[in-house]
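Re-run with default settings, no changes from the original entry. Doing this only to confirm the output is reproducible before filing.
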Amino acid sequence: MSRPRKPPLALVGTLPGGTAPGHAGKTRCPLCMCLFKAPRLLPCLHTVCTQCLEQLAPFSVVDLRGGDPDWVSEGSGSPGLKPQQHVGILCPVCDAQVDLPAGGVKALTIDHLAVNDVMLQSLRGEGQGLVCDLCSDREVEKRCQTCKANLCQFCCQAHRRQKKTTHHTMVDLKDLKDCSRVGKPILCPSHPAEELRLFCELCDRPVCRDCVVGEHREHPYDFTSNVIHKHGESVRDLLKGTHPHVEALEEALAQIKGSSSALQEQVEAVAADIQAFSEGYIKAIGEHRDRLLKQLEDIRSQKENSLQLQKAQLEQLLADTRTGVEFTEHLLASGSDLEILITKGVVVERLTKLNQIEYSAHPGVNDKICFFPEEKAGRCHGYEMYGIINTREVDPAKCVIIGEDLHRAREKQPASFTLLCKDTAGESMGRGGDNVQVTVVPKDKIESSSPVRTMVQDKKDGTYYISYIPKEAGLYTVLVRVKDQHVQGSPFTVNVRKRQRTHPGVFHCCSFCSSGGQKTARCACGGTMPGGYLGCGHGHRGHPGRPHWSCCGKFNEKAECTWTDGQNLSRSLLRTVAL
């Protein structure tokens, strides 16, 4: 169970100077506002000092998806999954949930780009803030290009006196101000004396020489410089697919602003109509006017709140997406091969998650606010008031489907039903013009089969007559949508049976009468009469006692005929006439 997130508006923050949260070129922690110290990269691609992260209040997260399959859930006799509990924190920038690894905050990925940026900024400030890598006490004056170490004056002299380092190249800090990279060698966390120069293809992470002869023995590996092209291209392709989302989100926010303006213009227009209509009724009409304006303001407030909520959600998604794009661009532009490979997993996971987030490309609200001055609005101080505000729109959840052919139909014969459109209060819309979509497809072939052609007739009173002709027998799925949403009862299944066989005989009272008195006339009901008559007759033995079909003996006039050749004697013996 995760902690509840803050309201969307609280997620959009800025750093000093009006800069939106991100990574590119950032050297200060968003929490302590100081230069990064041991910066850690979070899954949301925000960077925070290790010490600041450790000060955040953790919370427990229960995961029911993994664990012991023999665990039995409480209150049930069936086996389930044993819940696993781990610790998480919230990103201080975007409030995203961060599940901490087993090693805690210090097991998160180090942001080497941020380390390099801090060092560059310190160099450009004449070394202020940098301390010697050896003694960790004095300010830095020179840098050993061979060891990639920053040294004070005392340690620099000692460095030159040692036999192993006497020939190392020493550079003044002021000569490094124009450099783009001054970072230290990245060492293996498992073997601190070894640099990460290799990449294990099986484990998908950088390793050192000792790793490939130990934990990664027999794993395929290569130098980072040889594999960076393949892995870097995959990140670039993912970044290329993320860029369009930034443009789409910006366009969606622009539409929000346009919808807000249009809504305000419509509200102002309706308010003007209400003011003009209410001038003739003095006090009573004035009160009625105020009541209408209050109702209009409530509508505007409700719709504006909806717009603001959509805006906040889109802004947050845009901020998250920009963060991912900026960080990835900076990584690919400024990061070393090894840094790209180290950070690749976090970047790919974040960009993939951002690309999967769904959002409306055409946001906004329904701005259909109409004023009807001729409609009765009740009485005020004894006066009949006119003028109402109408914002009614169809509610798919309240719409219903009726008809005899909802669940049964015949092949190659018309089937139909009626859709009743209603508003949110369950009242009939009383008008047409809604976007009704009907799809009829074979139930087991929804994805592969072409839909059956359907006809939707708008009755202009809130009802729609829908008809179709199934081409063959079988089960069909019927989907009925209004405003791209299913109505009540949709989708439903229709059993299409074989085409109904018509009766070749006569629906009669007795075969004797129907045949015009023929003695040899036979009837499918099996009735006979005395005197050698084969067919049935009124009141005689074998007569069913009610009208029936002469061909199959069915009593229902609208029944399907079940007569087959050979079932009865030759039909030529039964010459029926309509009496």
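Confidence is low (pLDDT under 50) at residues 1-24, 67-79, 568-579. The chain has eight helices and 25 strands.
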